[in-house]
Amino acid sequence: MVIRKSLLSLSIASVFALTACGSDNDKKPTPEPPVVPPVVVVPETPDALAFVVNGNVVDGETSNLVAATITFFENGVATTNLVDVNGVALTSVDSAEGDFSFSKKADSEITEVTANVTAEGYIGKSFVIDLTVEEGVSVVSAQLSLVSKTAEGIADATEEATVTAGTVATAIEAVAESGAASAEVTIPASTVLQDADGNVITGTEITLNVTSSESAASIIPEGLNEDGATEISTPVGVATVLMVDENGNKIKKFSQPIDITVNVPASAGVAEGDMLTVSSHDEDTGLWSTEGGKATVGALDATTNTYPATFMTDHLTTFTTTITEEACTSAITANFTGDAIAKGLFISLKADDFNSGDISLKAGDTSKVLKLKGAAADAQANVTVTDKSGTVWGSGTDVDVCGSFSVSITNPVVLVSESFAMTAICSNDTTKTTPLTGAVVKYRLAGKGFESSTGAGDGSYALTDLVQGSSYEVRVTPTGEAFSGVGATNFTVTADGTDESGSITISCDTATGS
């Protein structure tokens, strides 16, 4: 039997078939997870550095900061133990204003470092920075004073010459003379000029600079004498001799000896015919050496009351003629009477044959043991206590400095203190902020040396012993990995005892999630 389906039954079957297929297609898709916007993360700020040196290169007369290059040495080679405030290894600093900061490696036991300082228009000098501190103190203040080549008592002269194949055709002579200060250099004809490695120079245009001083101790680099010596070398004449070609390459050696003459004051106790020791300082290592030859003392010049002392050498650097004296073996201690020592003061001891440099004092000091190398047993010096502006707080003339001596302190200004609170703000979400802890914060009067601030650990920093009514620049340098590229930011505050604040804006990292 043949079964025949009606059109109606086929239509109903089709409807059921289509309905069944449609039920699968009508299932709802799985929803996408909600989009969670990234969250701005405030960076962690570090603790304060355990140790930092706050240094300033200043003009010795004006106390103004001087743009300088500072190169650091240990035992005659580039330092390996210093880092910048972000922990990056540091061997030198080019400071556009003259201030600098550094720290020690965490595992370093270094107790001092030699800083060689050069600045345009000034006599270059090396300084020994003491890195030891009293318990509870984390900041070392180092003020490095340079003498201008135009300062009173300084003789400075420059000569230019042309050479062929590094050889001098006719003698080159340079004479620096001013009052009792005098130094003369003669480079004989046919002398071959060489660099520090003994290679013949390739330059053809030569500049020879000679500098001297009436007070030898005022310009010679530190480190001539060692700790604990029973006898010292006292400088009584000085000549700094520098020579470069047109490319700035230093000429350090010669194929034959050259002549150098320096003036020695009659007050040094020398006589015609005496033979003086000659010491030389290498600015490229920071080390002193004793020359093999001696300086012969000539006849007295009654006009300047000085004796010429002549010696020969085959290299260039800073030279000093010296006499030997009994060293001061007593503890040299300055005692302070009168007004209290404020933050940021320095004491200096200066004589023609002895110069202590600027020694930092701590607020509240009533006495200070001075770590001096090179003071004779009968040393006398003019003693001065000054602040970073060069204002005198106390002084003494012809003071016997071997042993204990006193300085009367008179505070010439009204001082106030205040705090400066620093905040870091995220530029990508200004509602996210954090106290800026661990920064290096320094402050100064316009043009003068910076004083270092101490932080309370909450982003606030003490600005101590400000001259009332004066305007101060505050320089804030963040530390730590999160702030490594931020650099320093300057603020201006008025010293009125009112706490102030500032902020920096940084781009903060983001993270996914709440």
Give your account of this protein's structure.
The protein has 514 residues and is mainly beta. Among the domains are: 154-326, Chondroitinase Ac, Chain A, domain 3, CATH 2.60.220; 329-410, Immunoglobulin-like (Sandwich), CATH 2.60.40; 415-511, Immunoglobulins (Immunoglobulin-like, Sandwich). Strands 11, 12, 13, 14, 15, 16, 17, 18, 19, 20 and 21 form an eleven-stranded antiparallel beta sheet that branches. Residues 1-23 have low confidence and may be disordered.
Short description:
The chain is mainly beta and 514 residues long. Mean pLDDT is 91; it is low at 1-23.
Portion in helices: under 10%
For the biggest sheet, the summary is: 11 strands, antiparallel
How does the overall form come out from the CA principal axes? globular
**How much of the sequence is in beta strands?**
over 45%
Work out the number of β strands: 39
CATH structural class of the domain at 154-326: Mainly Beta
Q: Look at the structure and give the mean pLDDT.
A: 91
Low-confidence runs: 1-23
**Which structural class should the secondary elements be placed in?**
mainly beta
Named CATH architecture of the domain at 154-326: Sandwich
What is the gyration radius calculated from CA atoms? 34 Å
Under CATH, the topology of the domain at 154-326 can be stated as Chondroitinase Ac, Chain A, domain 3
Tell me the number of helical segments per DSSP (H or I, 4 or more residues long).
Answer: 2
> First CA to last CA: what distance?
76 Å
